Amino acid sequence: MFLTSVVALLLTQVWGDDFFDGLQLVYEKISQKDITTAAFKSPTTIFGPLVGNANAKRQKSQPTASLELLSDEIVTRVSGRKGAWIDCVTLHTNFGRAVTCGGKGGGDFVIPTPADSEIRSISFKIGGHLSDTCAFVLQDSPTKAREGILIQDLQGILSSDEHSSRLNAISAALRYLGNIAQQPQEAKFQRIRASNKFFTSNVGVLGGEVAKAFMSWCGFEETSDQGDQFFTFKLSQLQGEPTPQQLAAEAQKRIHLLKSAGMHQ
């Protein structure tokens, strides 16, 4: 069987103290078949070069800080502070998370990148200190394109509802998803009883079909148990039982998309 593969950014590692000393990006190569199964069969880890000075290389096994990216999380912006050398660097993700390393000197800078792109690699001019930052990007990021489609779907589902009803539903969904993201091992957060007072007053008021469509968009599948209606959080693209890490990642993604839609204010 022919299998295509993707290479996703998995981990960012940074070194530095008073100045920024270096960075290493770690990638994961996954076959297309693995993406559609729960088992993520033997992905290949690819370590990018440690782009840094002697200080970073001496401490290669002990990065100052690191950020492990979640499913569908990408680096979208690089900012920091610099003078004659780079004092500090911050990598920002599409999920609103960031990792920062370095000192507080210099002035602010941001690496300009095209809209809807994802940063795949970063380079510096290396000497005793680092300078001349450059980012290499993937334009028209497929991840950003998928986000745009999902956000349009959400806006379509909630387009006919009153502002207050929309806010209440999104606020409730953020609470449900936040519980899963923080405690993915807790099964009680993954199943919501449709007759629950909090649900009926915040989501149920949207109306039967709209409420179902909204919960489905948030990752909850309608189920029944002994005649009672529930909404159960599931990863429909996976076969078998997802891991807690996969549940948390999907919940984080849905939280990010809900906030990015601009309908929660």
UniProtKB/TrEMBL annotation:
<dbReference type="InterPro" id="IPR018997">
    <property type="entry name" value="PUB_domain"/>
</dbReference>
<feature type="signal peptide">
    <location>
        <begin position="1"/>
        <end position="16"/>
    </location>
</feature>
<protein>
    <recommendedName>
        <fullName>PUB domain-containing protein</fullName>
    </recommendedName>
</protein>
<dbReference type="InterPro" id="IPR036339">
    <property type="entry name" value="PUB-like_dom_sf"/>
</dbReference>
<dbReference type="InterPro" id="IPR036404">
    <property type="entry name" value="Jacalin-like_lectin_dom_sf"/>
</dbReference>
<dbReference type="Pfam" id="PF09409">
    <property type="entry name" value="PUB"/>
</dbReference>
<feature type="domain" description="PUB">
    <location>
        <begin position="169"/>
        <end position="234"/>
    </location>
</feature>
<keyword id="KW-0732">Signal</keyword>
